[in-house]
Amino acid sequence: MLKLKNSILIGVLSVSIPLITLNAQDDSSELDEKMERLKEVLGIEFDGQLDESAYEILVQELDSLGIEENELAGGYEFIGGDFGFQEYLDNNIDHMLYLLGNKKNEFNDDEGEYAYEEDEGISDTGSGYSINIYGGFPIYKATTFETYDKANPVIGLSVGTPIGFNIGPFYANLGIELLNYTFNETGMDTSYGMDGTGIGTEEIIISPITSSSFGGNAYLAGLNTGFKLRGYDLNATITTGVFHAGTGFIAGGNFNIPMDNSPLNIRLSIRANIVQKEEGGATGWIGTGVSIGYYW
Predict the structure, then answer these.
(1) 296: helix, coil or strand?
(2) pLDDT of residue 136
(3) Is the distance from CB of 142 to CB of 285 less than 8 angstroms?
């Protein structure tokens, strides 16, 4: 079981690290390029800002085309001011360029306007569900937990749901998770055997053994809440449920790195775990990890 958990953790890390590096570079440069295209279409200077004045120009342009965007209809402050407007553009830049008829700054002489085909990718009409595989490792244990001197990888499987709400760039949704964790207390075993000389002399053989363990499966449900910024996702997870010795609680922070036009998602996490002990009272640990998710 331990070998399997180690293999899962190594597999998650080996896939995640190169994908994070490549996509962080590609996503940022591509988004910046599209923002510059939008500025050109709206007649904003190259070094100009996409601020409230840009919002007014965008709304006027859409009105002139007979297009009404519900998220923009409530006004600049309603969408969240500078932060909310930037987040809206980050998440809808392809849609905006499509509505305004722009594609890679290429002018269509036949129609006398910019031509743009909306990028193919993940549609906003997806189900809102996700499945994630988590691999992590404890980095700090409470003093009441120090007798367990050997920590093992923590492996989890979670499902995100569309149940929740969105307010501008902020969101919250419910999810469930199955988690497996194990800590061991090691001791020394003393035995006697032949010393290998062939003359029958006994020697003391001391070897490490596992004298007790703490762990099992946890069945959790909770809330994932945060906000999106320039295609990235900062969020917090709060879950509770049944652990092997009673109830428990997990609170953590996550940094999601979405894969451009892909249903895959990479998440870096740090989590604080508080759980009950069989003999009474509570203990806990802090761990870090990486998860790979699939959205549909």
Answers:
(1) coil
(2) 95
(3) yes
